[in-house]
């Protein structure tokens, strides 16, 4: 038995009758908070460059994946397991990399990104906007970056974006953002909520522009 197989068996044992009562009571929904926390702890370990911490936090994220898969395997109407998850992911990666598994040519990372959008569009033809599929639960700053990046593909940018002086370095940018949040807090303003509101307004602007062009 490989180390991975042993971990899969451990998850199954903990959730089986006679195992851990807490594990047995969990649902996909109850586990969301732990998945989010583990992902952020992994990000912190990566940013710290700590190998031991990365191994631990990658393991915690992997455990969440295995937990959800085992839960599904024993939930009526879901009935998939980690092998189904792996099989689906392998097929997806092969499909998304025709330059490796097929005859399409890609010399640079930019070439790959250019035709990924076409591949994703073929996979999800029901999406009508470049913003469809963007997870709205992301932290506001990460969400803003994601939405702006997607909107650029539709040649739409925030109307007042060009009026700001951009700091030269990420350190300067970080300090400026921190100062802005501090100033907002001092005035009783919620920076997270304010940015989400601005993102929603920009989202509507992008979709309106897409509809105008389509019509």
TrEMBL record:
Domain NTP pyrophosphohydrolase MazG-like as annotated: residue spans: 26-101
Gene Ontology BP terms: dATP catabolic process; dGTP catabolic process; dTTP catabolic process; dUTP catabolic process; response to stress; TTP catabolic process; UTP catabolic process
One of the Pfam families matching this protein, by short name: MazG
GO molecular function, one term: nucleoside triphosphate diphosphatase activity
PANTHER family, per database record: NUCLEOSIDE TRIPHOSPHATE PYROPHOSPHOHYDROLASE
Name under which the protein is recorded: MazG family protein
Species, as recorded: Agromyces intestinalis
């Amino acid at each position: 038995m490989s180390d991975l197989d042993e971990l899969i068996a451990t998850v199954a044992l903990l959730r089986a009758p006679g195992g851990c009562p807490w594990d047995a009571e969990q649902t996909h929904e109850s586990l969301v908070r732990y998945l989010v926390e583990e992902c952020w702890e992994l990000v912190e370990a990566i940013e710290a460059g700590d190998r031991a911490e990365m191994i631990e936090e990658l393991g915690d994220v992997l455990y969440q994946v295995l937990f959800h898969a085992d839960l599904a395997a024993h939930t009526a109407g879901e009935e998939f397991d980690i092998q189904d998850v792996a099989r689906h992911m392998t097929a997806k990666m092969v499909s998304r990399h025709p330059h490796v598994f097929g005859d399409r040519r890609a010399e640079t990372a930019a070439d790959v990104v250019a035709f990924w959008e076409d591949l994703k569009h073929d996979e999800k033809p029901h999406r009508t906007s470049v913003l469809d599929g963007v997870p709205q639960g992301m932290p506001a700053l990460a969400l803003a970056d994601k939405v702006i990046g997607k909107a650029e593909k539709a040649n739409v940018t925030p109307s007042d974006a060009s009026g700001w002086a951009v700091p030269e370095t990420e350190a300067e940018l970080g300090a400026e953002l921190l100062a802005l949040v501090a100033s907002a807090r001092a005035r009783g303003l919620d920076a997270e909520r304010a940015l989400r509101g601005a993102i929603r307004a920009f989202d509507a602007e992008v979709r309106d522009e897409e509809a105008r062009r389509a019509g």
